[in-house]
Write a structure and sequence with these properties.
The protein is about 35% helix and about 25% strand. The chain has about 475 residues and is α/β, with parallel strands linked by helices. Bound molecules: flavin-adenine dinucleotide and nicotinamide-adenine-dinucleotide.
Length: about 475
């Protein structure tokens, strides 16, 4: 039987990063993945394919709506070739997952294909083409998550679908009904909206992206409505029914009135659930909590001391970069180091256009905690860079401690906010004040100038260009 210092179950951004870090630290490492392709949700049916489709559909929308204004004329009709778009997405995925194969080989990590199932706290049985058993001193559970649904919905994967099917449709929906106005619903809703679908979003809470700063929800809602999205907040979905090619969704609005939505596809994007099916965690004595997550302490150690868990299968934000940070942390803990993750500084991004990005506390959280704070906000439309590219929507908002000026949260919506948020993460990591950012030179013309201007506004209400 093969023995390892560490065996990792699951090869998503949590598992494969943990494997690389373990190998870098000199540990004999194995990784077990149930699918023939490495990379997990993020690389195969998550982050990467969704961004590939967002990019393609963005190009199409630009060509149809904005090229003429830029002085670019395309003779004849501009058409979508959905098959080519989906094929390109798949080739991006294939290149990316191929890169993980290369990294496993480069780091001498043994890859096992099959479902990993605990036999006991130091042995895992791998049920693939043949059954193999391995032994490991330490085991990391990185089994991720799966889409969740509502009890009365039958996901048929044809017309009533999850994100996985939405990434490989063979036709553009005429009317896509999206249940859940969170990250997946809005990103994939925007893909099909740009390609010509009518899109209706049904959200249970009183605003879309309800966990982010309310200012961001409001601005994104405004922009999406301008893009002709139908946004229906405070709606409680009560039935989803398929009749041939039609999907009928019934919901109660805020007043308790029944509202009926009729479309040809319905995307269910109401969150994801931790995935431990087939893992046989009980054989190792590993405890799950009542939400189905693997229970861990601050070192991401389970109740069994040599078994750790990371990523979507444990508490916290279900984000690829959070999973990867946890993978690194656990590898270093096993190696006897004392790493640390500041969860407050894990940024969150929604890749709609305009992009939405956040780090730290929201205004709602600061108010609830009774923290005295000041806010500085700067609109993207006041930037030369925004006018040059015609990306006028959005703003950057900086929240800083009223007394010390330390930055407590940064919330932005606008072109390239996903990349711009990195400056805020660095600043907060070093406990910068708003004045620190306001005194740093930001290249002109860039979208990042909005961050400096928001910092000036937060420091002394002295933004320059407004
Ligand atoms: C449509 C979509 C878009 C997303 N976009 C983003 C984004 O832009 N940015 C971002 O940060 N996050 C994004 N996410 C979330 C991101 O994909 C997850 O947070 C991330 O993949 C979690 O990583 P993980 O390693 O914990 O688990 P996963 O990536 O889910 O990987 C778990 C792996 O474990 C395997 N596995 C499970 N059980 C077993 C077993 N018993 N034996 C062997 N293998 C097993 C699974 O097959 C899977 O490959 C997106 C998600 C979706 C669905
Ligand atoms: N850009 C990114 O980082 C990215 C992209 C996609 C997915 N993800 C991750 O994947 C996970 C799942 O994404 P998601 O969009 O499914 O979840 P989410 O939690 O972002 O959004 C789910 C939405 O559905 C709403 N909802 C819940 N029950 C409902 C109901 N009965 N009726 C109507 N609305 C309801 C919620 O209020 C919420 O707004 C998220 O945790 C997210 O972090 C991240």
């Amino acid at each position: 039987m093969n023995s390892y210092d560490v065996a990792i179950i699951g090869s998503g951004p949590g598992g494969y990063v943990a494997a690389i870090r373990c190998a870098q630290l000199g540990m004999k490492t194995a990784i077990i993945e149930k699918y023939p392709v490495l990379g997990g949700t993020c690389l195969n049916v998550g982050c990467i394919p969704s961004k590939a489709l967002l990019d393609s559909s963005h190009h199409y929308e630009d060509a149809v709506k904005h090229f003429e204004e830029h002085g670019i004329e395309i003779p004849g009709d501009i058409k979508v070739n959905l098959k080519q778009m989906i094929d390109r997405k798949q080739s991006v995925v294939d290149q990316t997952t191929g890169g993980i194969d290369y990294l496993m080989k480069k780091n001498n990590i043994e890859v096992y294909q099959g479902v990993g199932s605990f036999k006991d706290a130091t042995h895992v049985v791998i049920k693939g083409e043949k059954e193999t058993e391995i032994e490991a001193k330490n085991i990391i559970i990185a089994t991720g998550s799966k889409p969740s649904s509502l009890p009365f919905i039958n996901i048929d994967k044809e017309r009533i679908i999850t994100s996985t099917e939405a990434l490989k449709l063979t036709e553009i929906p005429k009317h896509l009904i999206v249940i859940g106005g969170g990250v997946i619903g809005l990103e994939l809703g925007q893909v099909y909206k740009r390609l010509g679908a009518e899109v209706s979003v049904i959200e249970y809470m009183d605003r879309i992206i309800p966990t982010m700063d309310a200012g961001l929800s409001k601005e994104l809602s405004k922009v999406l409505k301008k893009q002709k999205f139908s946004i229906n907040t405070s709606h409680r979905v009560k039935s989803v029914e398929r009749k041939g090619k039609e999907v009928i969704v019934k919901a109660d609005n805020k007043k308790g009135e029944e509202v009926t939505f009729k479309g040809d596809y319905c995307l269910v994007s109401v969150g994801r659930r931790p995935y431990t099916d087939g893992l046989n965690a009980e054989a190792a004595g590993v405890k799950l909590n009542d939400r189905g997550q693997v229970e861990v302490n601050e070192h991401l150690q389970t109740n069994v001391s040599n078994i750790y868990a990371i990523g979507d299968v444990v508490k916290g934000a279900m984000l690829a970069h959070k999973a990867s940070e946890e993978g690194t942390l656990v590898a270093e803990v096993i190696a006897g180091q004392k790493p640390h993750i500041d969860y407050n500084l894990i940024p969150g991004v929604v890749y709609t256009w305009p992009e939405v990005a956040s780090v730290g506390k929201t205004e709602e959280q600061l108010k609830e905690a009774g923290v005295a704070y000041k806010a500085g906000q700067f609109p993207m439309r006041a930037l030369g860079r925004s006018r040059a590219s015609m990306d006028l929507d959005g703003f950057v908002k900086i929240l800083a401690d009223k007394n010390t000026d330390e930055i407590l949260g940064v919330h932005m919506i606008g072109a390239r906010a996903a990349d711009m948020i990195a400056e805020a993460v660095v600043a907060m990591e070093y406990r910068a004040s708003a004045e620190d950012i306001s005194r740093m030179s930001h290249a002109h013309p860039t979208f990042a100038e909005a961050t400096k201007e928001a910092a000036l506004a937060a420091t002394e209400d002295r933004a320059l260009h407004i």
